[in-house]
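Below is a filled-in request sheet from our internal design queue. Each sheet records the structural input a requester submitted and the sequence that came back. We keep these sheets so that new team members can see what a complete request looks like end to end.

REQUESTER: design group, bay 2
PRIORITY: normal
MODE: inverse folding
CHAIN LENGTH: 78
BACKBONE (tokenized):
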């Protein structure tokens, strides 16, 4: 299954609203939670190949050759 491209802003907003609206947290608390969630989700999607470090959605089927110009990576490392 193909992952949608990672959208940090959308995720950030969703998390902030969730914690403020559903959990009743303050804006500051919700913002700091959102920051750590976005950071963690971004890390999961970044290729661990030192020469690559592009997102999984830059790789064919999220796991094969990286499509970023001039990148030699042929497999997504997680
Ligand atoms: Zn790459
Ligand atoms: Zn890669």
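RETURNED SEQUENCE:
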């Amino acid at each position: 299954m193909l992952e949608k491209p990672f959208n940090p802003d959308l995720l950030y907003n969703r998390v902030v609203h969730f914690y403020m609206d559903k959990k009743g947290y303050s804006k500051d608390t919700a913002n700091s939670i959102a920051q750590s969630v976005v950071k963690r989700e971004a890390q999961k999607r970044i290729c661990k190949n030192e020469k690559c470090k592009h997102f999984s959605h830059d790789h064919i089927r999220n796991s094969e050759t990286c499509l970023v110009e001039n990148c030699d990576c042929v497999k997504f490392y997680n």
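SHEET NOTES:
- The helical segments are 8-22, 27-44.
- The pocket of zinc ion (ligand 2) is lined by residues 47, 49, 52, 54, 59, 66, 73, 76 (CB under 6 Å).
FILED BY: M.R.
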